[in-house]
């Protein structure tokens, strides 16, 4: 026989005479995860209590007792002394029940003019606001690490790839700054998510407003919220701000996953372009030679979870009628998981970027064996010798084919073999035409991989970091 609970023990139990089934309690509890909101719930409750005093519901003495009780509860939770009980369902009921134990009947006054619907909606907004600040800090640390590595490796030439085939020589700084700008866009996206999130919904009641002359302007000021929701029905049921956070988180984790994929490939024996330190890799239980890039692989896997969280939220919301429905209890699972996944992934990525080392000799070997300056040689024939492009393309193609048959590169094939294909494939002009470093420096358009443009891009990136720092201040 299933255990029964007296529904009158619930904070909402006055309406009920019968006993609650065990499944109702077990399926309805959210304290196992929404306890993460305790600081935000206490912050909102303090502001609400002050507002109740301002409009005459609480006396000065009652307000002080409530604030003292809320401070005690925060200390108990912080220290791990607080006892969570599934029958109290959520963090809001835990706070109210404990407040009543500590301060007596005045604890029951705290919920005046407030519903759990607008209470939890505000808690989540405060939680998102606080977590976005943490995400921005992690993004800035990652971007700074990318910047510093780019600055150190401006003279390191590595292959740039298309179709995962060697394409053209690029500076390692160019590769790193590509991700710097991706994560800069992510930072902008999170700031946009913060702007959509930063709204006061407390004071909306269950869905239609409240029967008290509550002072929402006062609440907004207390909570540091710049905007007040104009519609109570939308306020308690809208989750666009949560979707925006998950969109931003998904985009950020996609970028993180792509960078991890590059690091996994580049640190492999076949590529060998970068080396990760022992402290950020693992070995094999059976193969003693292995050095596995586990952090990168795990972050790549965690990106899938983040995408799943976004999908979870979109599907959860797409069929809900106005206003609050209990389904919305499930919104926090996706949010909490996304936050935790983001923060640990950005930390892991930042450590890998900070500690990795490039191997220029391996980059040079890949570029030479991949005939990465074949296009430069064709452009030399066109630009300096007046050869039609189609003819130049054919001559270089023949030279590459000859190299392939002889097991040579554009750098090692003999001048005699080159001159047999074209008299222009001789002397210092030829050497300059196939030079890896000169190839990179020819890409001198704005945003290109030439050294002068990389110095320029680093200055722009530095200003972006300074702007982000000033914004946080």
UniProtKB/TrEMBL annotation:
Q: Which domain of life is it from?
A: Bacteria
* GO BP annotation list: L-arginine biosynthetic process via ornithine
- Where found, per UniProt? Cytoplasm
Kindly state which keywords UniProt assigns to this record, in alphabetical order: Amino-acid biosynthesis, Arginine biosynthesis, Cytoplasm, Lyase
What terms describe the molecular function in GO for this protein? argininosuccinate lyase activity
HAMAP family for the chain: Arg_succ_lyase (MF_00006)
- Supply the name of the protein: Argininosuccinate lyase
- The organism is Leptospira fluminis
Which gene specifies this protein's sequence? Answer: argH
